[in-house]
Amino acid sequence: MPAITRRTALLSAAAAPASLALPASAQAHDGGGHAMPRARSFTLGEFHVTTLLSGSVPREEPQSIFGMNVSAEDFAQVSEENFIGTDAAQFFFTPTLVDTGSERILFDTGLNAASLEGPLAEAGYAPADITHVVLTHMHGDHIGGMTTEAGELTYTEAAYLTGQVEYDAWAAQENEGFDAKVRPFAERFTFLGDGDAVTSGVTAMAAFGHTPGHMTYMLESGGQQMMLIADLANHYVWSLGYPDWEVRFDMDKAAAAASRRRVLGMLAADRVPMIGYHMPFPAAGFVETRGDGFRYVPVSYQFMG
Question: Does any domain span residue 11?
Fold first, then answer.
């Protein structure tokens, strides 16, 4: 397991498009139409980390989303080299639950409240067990589960936290999702800056660009680390592998690319594992350098125990 390093210790520095929304009944299925497991747990020191699959859906014409600034020929070549087609992409939506032993911290709330009921139950938790809800940013697939269909808070026992820069940016504009899911509960939020702690061993780290105040979070327990990268990279090849490729959902594309290069470079150099909200479920893996970019290495059995 990776140890805490000086490099890492010093590193601190639109609602999602409607086309990505899934109905409350959305389920994840494998290629044969069978229901997939929707919770996967990992051991990180004294922490119990569980990824929760809120939903998964295919989307056609992936180059209208990823690699918008490269040629169709380059996009096709990279796709072929990585054994994926250019006709469609499979999207995954994966909040993470971190059980520290005394707190149960949910990072992002999924597509809607109903979409996490099953995964939470599969992992052995109920909404009332959640002590903290942390929003990495305000896109709809991350805040959708903040409230039930009746408009009530889903996680009634939780404290709520998010980045100050992110909240201020969305509060200054009109956005239907933010106005319905977040703004009514402003008084319940604690606001974080770069380097602030959610709780002991959980640190906010700025990675702006995807949204104005998009945050990642470093987990540290027992001398081991793991980073929750949220939407730093939205696809394991077309975004993580090629950090300069433009992504439609990135609000500031140059800043997002710079954040990807900085954070992915650190993860690769220090061999720190990561969880990415849109990585193929169970959404956890490692990053290594490859040429001028990176390569995603999914977890296998490294965190069993």
Answer: no
Q: Is residue 17 part of a domain?
A: no
Residue 305: inside a domain, yes or no? Answer: no
CA distances from 160 to 44, 58, 97 (A): 23, 31, 14
**Quick check: is 24 in a domain?**
no
Other CB atoms within a 10 A radius of the CB of residue 135 amount to 25
Low-confidence ranges of the chain (pLDDT < 50): 1-27, 29-32
pLDDT number for residue 302: 87
H/E stretch holding 275: strand 274-276
Residues 104-153 have pLDDT tens digits of: 999 999 999 999 999 999 999 999 999 999 999 999 999 999 999 999 99
Domain housing 220: 38-298
CATH of the domain at 281: 3.60.15.10
pLDDT of residue 303: 84
User: Do 66 and 79 form a contact (C-beta atoms < 8 A)?
Assistant: no
Say how many domains are in the chain. Answer: 1
In degrees and rounded to multiples of 5, residue 166 shows phi and psi of -65, -50
| Residue in this structure with the two tokens 């490269």, named with its chain if needed | 70
SS3 of residue 43 by DSSP: strand
